[in-house]
Specification:
Blueprint lengths: L1 E8 L15 E2 L8 E5 L3 E7 L4 E4 L9 E4 L12 E10 L13 E5 L24 E6 L14 E6 L3 H7 L8 E4 L20 E4 L2 E4 L2 E5 L1
InterPro entries: Peptidase_S1_PA (IPR009003), Peptidase_S1_PA_chymotrypsin (IPR043504), Peptidase_S1A (IPR001314), Serine_Proteases_S1 (IPR050127), Trypsin_dom (IPR001254), TRYPSIN_HIS (IPR018114)
Keywords: Disulfide bond, Hydrolase, Protease, Serine protease, Signal
Pfam families: Trypsin (PF00089)
Length: about 220
Amino acid sequence: MISLVFILLIGAAFATEDDKIVGGYECKAYSQPHQVSLNSGYHFCGGSLVNENWVVSAAHCYKSRVEVRLGEHNIQVTEGSEQFISSSRVIRHPNYSSYNIDNDIMLIKLSKPATLNSYVQPVALPTSCAPAGTMCTVSGWGNTMSSTADKNKLQCLNIPILSYSDCNNSYPGMITNAMFCAGYLEGGKDSCQVLSTLTSIQWYHNDDFKLTFSVQLIQK
C-alpha cells in the first residue's frame, strides 16, 4: 500500500499546466531516470515513474490521454535514450481541489510496460518523512526566467523543507493536514514562473530518501 502526503511549495498559489523550474541549474544528463515528460503535442507537465506500468503526476496536469516520454534530457532533441508510451488510463484524485491544490495527485497507467535501463528507472520510494530544514532537489523542464539556462534541458533546483508554522503563516487558511512546504520564503528559486503556479510532480532527493515535489510516496 502506498500512502500519499501532499506538499505545497512556497511561492505557488494556484495550479496550472506548463509548470517551470525557476532559478535552477542543468541536471547532470540522465541523473534523474525516474523523470518523465507528459506530452500532448507539446511538453506540459512532468511526472515520476513508480514502476514499469505506472507514473505519478499532479492532478492539475490532467488530460484524458497523454503521451509519456521517458529517458529524456533535452526534450527538443532525439538522443536515442527516449521511450514514448501512450496512456491507457489517467486517474485523477476524485477530491482534487483547484482552490487550495489539495489532493493534487494523478496516476497514469502506461499502455505497455516501460523498458528499464540506465536511462529509465522507477523512483526510489522513501521510508520516512524528512524534517524541516532538510535540503532537497527538485527537477523539471523550463527555466524560463534565466537568460542562460536551456529550458529544453532538464533543470534541477535545491530547496529546503519548511516547517508547518512557516508554511501556514505564508498561506493562512490554505494548508491542509495533508500538506507540507518546501522552498524559500524570500523567493527567487521556485518550480513555477512568476504568476504561474505549482510544480508538476518531481522528486527531491537527499541520500537516504526521495520524495515528490507535490506528493510524497511512502511504501507501507
